[in-house]
Amino acid sequence: MIQISHVSKNYGSFDVLKDCSTTVSKGEVIVVCGPSGSGKSTLIKCVNGLEPFQSGEIIVNGTSVGDPKTNLSKLRAHVGMVFQNFELFPHMSITQNLAIAQVKVLGRQQDEAIDKGLKLLDRVGLKAHAHKFPGQLSGGQQQRVAIARALAMDPICMLFDEPTSALDPEMVNEVLDVMTELAQEGMTMMCVTHEMGFAKRVANRVIFMDHGRIVEDDSKEAFFANPRSERAQQFLAKILHH
Amino acid sequence: MVYEFDWSSIPGALPILWDGMAVSLEITLIAIVVGIVWGTLLAMMRLSSIKPLSLFAAGYVNLFRAVPLVMVLLWFFLIVPRFIADLFGLPPNTDLRLASAMIGFALFESAYYSEIIRAGIQSVPKGQMAACQALGMTYGQAMRLVILPQAFRNMVPLLLTQAIILFQDTSLVYVSALADFFGSAYKVGDRDGRLVELLLFAGLVYFVLCFAASMLVKHLQKKYQPA
Ligand SMILES: Nc1ncnc2c1ncn2[C@@H]1O[C@H](COP(=O)(O)OP(=O)(O)O)[C@@H](O)[C@H]1O
Ligand SMILES: [Mg+2]
């Protein structure tokens, strides 16, 4: 589904990504972790072309992301993405947030789009909030709406960039529960997260990044039982302590 | 000797002054509409990653902000009428002063509007554009549906304040002998030898209108202050 081969990216003399390669198969759930600034967000944003990269290749569902001839908008319409800061559109109601891209990008009819949006809103447990505006919802609720908004586009895979990092601790689980359910339904997912409980529950593989490199890319069993690199060991020790 | 005020020529002058006010408001309105539309395009060019576009916009904005408005109006008064007359094959005596004043104002004010709008666009978090693109929207759709509506909502007080300044600035069209509100007051005062009274009256009208408008802006600002 997603093949990342030898991707490198730099800002001037600073290498953000160094020769990164990995594959995400259909239905797989991959958790990407690593220290802050290691390039996790950059890597995941390369997958849907939000960040350009200088060398290497990324193929999503048969389409090369880096190819200048690729219609990126068309590709992105079917690659869901969830951001750390939710990025709901604050000037639109929840219903409009869910419908707008379906209508403007996929060309669906307004009522069809609203129908679909409301179904997904129900699925993330927020049907009663349809008429509200994002500012009236809690962070956890906003993030669930953001997930529903991405799902409304019928994505072939979902990218998550630290979806729970901006949340108060008591709201983390409501978002992870939605993500877990999604994983169990067979959605292909690439999740940047430090929620190791989530990783243990649903991940197939864990990728550990450090200084722009993919240092570990292992089954979750192998990763948690016995991380190979010292950096990953230190990281795990620190994060599991908290 | 104390100057003796004589306000008697004002009531009779009201129709002329009213016509002048209509001209002032017309110029203001056109300049606001064109200023916002062209200013938005300039702001988007300025923020664009396409170098020639951003250079052009930067040059335009800096040029118009570095010359006095009176001078721009004079240029347009002297040059544009002939240019337009040639372009459309109009008879040479067609009165194009209003049109050229409007064009001059609109182009000048666009430079100021574009700076306000640029700040407004930049006030929208970067993640909003990323979210739009991640949903498959094109740059144009993202701007139109998500970024600009938020930018304009943040900018309403500044845009209105600029509109008030613009309305005052319309008095500068007197250089083209165009009968706007100020020009009309001046003409009547000159004709009746009551310049002081007419200019005081005109000043009072400007003050009342602009003061009321800026109170309104303050009120709106309070009411719609982002939480
Ligand atoms: N536009 C940019 N210009 C220069 N450096 C950047 C830019 N964006 C990100 N970086 C740098 O790239 C590195 C990786 O960033 P990021 O992918 O956000 O890391 P992570 O998500 O793992 O915390 C960081 O060191 C960051 O400072
Ligand atoms: Mg990050």
UniProtKB/TrEMBL annotation, chain A:
Protein family (similarity comment): Belongs to the ABC transporter superfamily.
Taxonomy of the source species: Bacteria, Pseudomonadati, Pseudomonadota, Betaproteobacteria, Rhodocyclales
Alphabetized CDD domains for the sequence: ABC_HisP_GlnQ (cd03262)
Membrane topology of this protein: Peripheral membrane protein
Presence of keyword Ion transport: no
Protein name: Amino acid ABC transporter ATP-binding protein
Primary location class: membrane
Entry keyword set: Amino-acid transport, ATP-binding, Cell membrane, Membrane, Nucleotide-binding, Transport
Pfam families membership: ABC_tran
SUPFAM superfamilies: P-loop containing nucleoside triphosphate hydrolases (SSF52540)
Entries under Gene3D superfamilies matching the protein: P-loop containing nucleotide triphosphate hydrolases
TrEMBL record, chain B:
Pfam families the record matches: BPD_transp_1
Membrane-crossing segments per the record: 20-42, 63-84, 158-178, 198-217
Main localization category: membrane
InterPro entries: AA_ABC_transptr_permease_3TM, ArtM/GltK/GlnP/TcyL/YhdX-like, MetI-like, MetI-like_sf
Superkingdom in the source lineage: Bacteria
Location(s) in or outside the cell: Cell inner membrane; Cell membrane
Keywords, in A-Z order: Cell membrane, Membrane, Transmembrane, Transmembrane helix, Transport
Membrane topology, from the record: Multi-pass membrane protein
Domain ABC transmembrane type-1 intervals: 21-217
Family membership: Belongs to the binding-protein-dependent transport system permease family. HisMQ subfamily.
Protein name: Glutamate/aspartate ABC transporter permease GltK
Organism: Azonexus hydrophilus
